Amino acid sequence: METILTVNHLTKKFGLLTAVSDLSFTIEKGNVYGILGPNGSGKSTTLGIILNVVNRTSGDFSWFDGSTSTHEALKKVGAIIERPNFYPYMTAIQNLKLVCKIKEVPSAKIEEKLKLVGLWDRKDSKFKTYSLGMKQRLAIASALLNDPEILILDEPTNGLDPQGIHQIREIIKTIAGQGTTILLASHLLDEVEKVCSHVVILRKGEKLYSGPVDGMMASHGFFELRSADMEKMKELLETHASFGKINSFNGTLTAYLKEEMDAESLNKMLYDKGIILSHLVKRKESLEEQFLSLTKNN
Ligand code: ADP
Ligand code: MG
C-alpha cells in the first residue's frame, strides 16, 4: 500500500482549549476517508494543520513517503476548506483559466474537469449566476485541475439542497472511482456511510475510532431478555465470555455481544442452567446509534 499522509500525535491548543488531542492516523492511496464528528470536534482544525494554514502545537505529520517537503507535497493536493470564491463577473471558464495560470497547469484540462462536475454546459455563465451547489462543483473542478493525488473537502455538502447534496456525493464517488484518494470532513454520519470507505471519528479533538466504515458497522448486536430470575440471569451473562456490557432497565436485560451468537444457542445455554426466558429478542445496533453512543459525552 502507498501512504499519502501520516499524522502522528498531533495536538492543537487554542489557549486553554485543546481542539485536536494526540491524533494519529494514516491515509492510504485509493481510499475515501471521512473525518466524522459533531461540530467543534476538531475536523477543520485537523485539515488546516495538514494544509499548513493552522500551526500545530505538538506532534507532526508527513506527506507521501515523508521525503517531500510540505510545500512541495501540497502541489499534489487539491483542497476546498472554505466557501468557494471566484470572480463573480467572470464565467466559469474564465475563472478556471485564471486558476490554470496560477497553478501553472495547461488550460486544456478545463473541459475534462467541467464535464466531470456537470458544468460544461454552463461554462459560459458568470459565477454570480451559479447556485451554491454549482459553486461548490466549480470549486471541485478547480481543485482537480492539476490532477492531485488527494482531494480534501471540508463539509462539502453543507448548506446544499437535497439535489445538490446528491450531485456532490455522486461526483465524489466518481472521482474516487478514478483512483483519486479523498479526505472529507463531515458531521453527517449518513454522508460518511454513503461516501467513505474509511472513517476517523473525533469527539472533542480525540480519536474515538479509525478504520473501515464496515468495521464501525460490524457490531455483533445485543439481546433483550426477560425471565423470572433476572438476577441469576444477569450474573450468568456477566461471567460469560461472549458478552460485554449488560444493562438492566424496566425489567428487561440488555446484553451486548462481543462475538457472534444466535438466539437459539443463548436460549439453550440459559435453559441448561435452569433459566426459562419469557422474552428473547436479538437486535443489531444501527450505525446511527453506535455513532451517538461513541460521541455522547461520557
Ligand atoms: P469542527 O470543524 O469539527 O466543527 P473546529 O476544528 O472548527 O471543529 O474547532 C474545534 C474547536 O477549536 C472548537 O471548539 C472551536 O471553537 C475551536 N477553534 C477553532 N478555531 C479556533 C481559533 N482560530 N481560535 C480559537 N478557537 C478555535
Ligand atoms: Mg469544521
Automatic annotation (TrEMBL):
Q: Mind telling me what this protein is named?
A: ATP-binding cassette domain-containing protein
Give the family per the record.
Answer: Belongs to the ABC transporter superfamily.
Q: Which Pfam families match?
A: ABC_tran (PF00005)
ABC transporter domain location is 5-229
What organism does the UniProt record list as the source?
Answer: Flagellimonas alvinocaridis
- Please give the InterPro entries that the UniProt record associates with this protein: AAA+_ATPase, ABC_transporter-like_ATP-bd, ABC_transporter-like_CS, P-loop_NTPase
Swiss-Prot/TrEMBL keywords: ATP-binding, Nucleotide-binding, Transport
A GO molecular function annotation here is: ATP binding
Q: In the UniProt record, does the keyword Nucleotide-binding occur?
A: yes
